[in-house]
Amino acid sequence: MRPDWDSYFMKIAYAVSERSTCDRAFVGCVLVLEKRILTTGFNGSPAGQEHCDEVGHLMVDGHCVRTIHAETNAIIQAALHGVSTKGATCYVTHLPCINCTKVLINAGISRIVYSTAYRTDENAMNFLNAANIEVEQKEFRA
Asked: Measured between alpha carbons, how far is residue 38 from residues 4, 7, 41, 49, 115 in Å?
């Protein structure tokens, strides 16, 4: 059976998550505009830096600070390549954290589709609501 568009892009987000190098959460993100993929991102260290799966986690206050989150990496890729993300949909395996939420808002993302509520942050949800960003949880089936 042919998948609907949301299922199709979520499946791609999960494929992207396989590139993650921080095993605390394998997260993948796909930014899409008008059914076209703009960029992708996964959890990993800054370019040229050692990865968690090579040297371990760098933990500060219960968070691994060695890793850049998938959503932020997708936005960075758009910036590096001159791709506008205004009005795009963010397909991401996990609900964005507060910092990624703020980045997505400022990048002009209009909709977020996620599968797993890794951590639900009330502040992040309040920010998304205030920014009128549609948020939808979509169950993922391989």
From this structure: 19, 17, 11, 25, 20
